[in-house]
Specification:
The chain has 386 residues and is of the alpha/beta class. It has 2 domains: 133 residues, Aspartate Aminotransferase, domain 1 (Alpha-Beta Complex), CATH 3.90.1150.10; 238 residues, Aspartate Aminotransferase, domain 2. The chain is built from 13 helices and 13 strands. The protein has a 7-stranded mixed β-sheet with strand order 2-8-7-6-5-3-4, sandwiched between helices. The protein has a 4-stranded antiparallel β-sheet with strand order 9-10-13-12. Strands 1-11 form a two-stranded parallel ribbon. Helix 1 runs parallel beside helix 12 and helix 4 runs parallel beside helix 5. The longest helix has 25 residues.
Length: 386
């Protein structure tokens, strides 16, 4: 029998929609994974590490030393953040495990966590696993601006704030003014801050500014990222968190009883990739940006109202223009009617009515796949899919 704290979450929307894609043969623009591999040089480094005979056993609990050092150097080089590579870095089995270990290692039962909605679904589940509860601050369409007054009202008495920028699923890149406001709230209310920055190298409009770089934030902020989105290796599940040792210690205490360690040769390869991150990331970023523009133009041509994302993998379209009042049912019917899978954005809201007519489409796909998906939507027509 499923534990009561997990019963409200059921099966993820990703599992449901991916199963629909498999059953119908539809193009899957639901789940956020690229359909091409990342750089060949990084893949070759895995084989070199394996054949070298030093990377086929357990990694240290913190992660292989060269990756920990590369993460610390990446933070210094890109953002001017000084991170201890020994006690200020924890490698995890993907960013999702970093999120889980953070909640389990830093929260006490009864703690309250301020979460910006819509949110990546593991936030809610792992907060519940830790016995904590959520306080929601809502990003509302069409611009998804952060309401700093609402944030300030939610903060008193809370233990933690979870922030994601570039943001999934809206594609917002928070501005410096917004982040300055977030920092003021965190300092005033002494919040531990957890920032999910997995799309840090995929900002197309605006600048990604890590919250830890703002005054008063470095010693209260745990930064999470991964190789999945930066280098297009979502299946490798190499993630990490970095920040002040007293926060990383809590994550490590929980992590040791989750997966302990894994993917040792993959960690070695990612260390090399991070050492030359921009050279690898720049062409990937431009390819995904082109996918964004291609998809958004196609969705507009199909009669949808589109919020053009500033970063990440996803664009949100409002299907109300098609006469749709329930995007979840529309998405369930879409594979059979049009041969395309998308995700109802309401699945990412604690208040699902806010996103009831929004649909999230992934654009991290090959141009011909995006074109075919758009053609299918156009051939189906608004009446058929609406």
């Amino acid at each position: 029998m499923t534990a009561s704290r997990l019963r409200p979450f059921g099966t993820t929307i990703f599992s449901e929609m991916s199963a629909l894609a498999a059953r119908t043969g539809a193009i899957n623009l639901g789940q956020g994974f690229p359909d091409t591999d990342g750089p060949a040089q990084i893949m070759a480094a895995v084989e070199t590490a394996m054949r070298g005979g030093q990377a086929n056993q357990y990694a240290p609990i913190a992660g292989v030393p060269e990756l920990c050092a590369a993460i610390a150097e990446h933070q210094r080089r890109h953002y001017g953040l000084e991170v201890d590579p020994h006690d200020g870095v924890q490698v995890t089995f993907g960013a999702t495990e970093a999120i889980a270990a953070t909640m389990l290692g830093l929260l006490e039962p009864g703690d309250e966590v301020v979460v910006i909605e819509p949110f990546y679904d593991s936030y809610a589940a792992t907060i519940a696993l830790a016995g904590a509860t959520r306080r929601l601050v809502t990003l509302r369409p069409p611009d998804f601006a952060l309401d700093l007054d609402a944030l300030a009202a939610a903060a008193p008495g809370a233990r933690m704030l979870v922030l994601n920028s570039p943001h999934n699923p809206t594609g917002r890149v928070l501005t410096r003014d917004e982040l300055d406001g977030v920092a003021r709230v965190c300092v005033e209310h002494d919040l531990v801050t957890v920032t999910d920055e997995v799309y840090e190298h995929l900002a197309y409009d605006g600048e990604h500014i890590p919250l830890a770089t703002l005054p008063g934030m470095a010693q209260r902020t745990l930064t999470i990222s991964s190789a999945a989105k930066s280098f297009s290796f979502t299946g490798w599940k190499v993630g990490w968190c970095s920040g002040p040792p007293q926060l990383v210690a809590g994550v490590r205490a929980a992590k040791q009883f989750l997966s302990y360690s894994g993917g040792t040769p993959l960690q070695v390869a990612v260390a090399g990739a991070l050492a030359d991150a921009e050279r690898h990331v720049a062409p990937l970023r431009e390819a995904v940006r082109a996918g964004r523009d291609r998809l958004c133009e196609g969705l507009l041509a199909a009669g949808l109202h589109v919020s053009v994302p500033q970063g990440g993998y996803f664009a949100n379209a409002d299907v109300a223009a098609l006469g749709v009042t329930d995007a979840r049912e529309w998405c369930r019917a879409l594979p059979d009617r049009a041969g395309v899978v998308a995700i109802p954005t309401s699945a990412f809201y604690g208040h699902p009515e806010v996103g009831r007519t929004l649909v999230r489409f992934a654009f991290c796909k090959r141009p011909e796949v995006i074109d075919e998906a758009v053609d299918r939507l156009l051939r189906a027509g608004a009446a058929a899919v609406g």
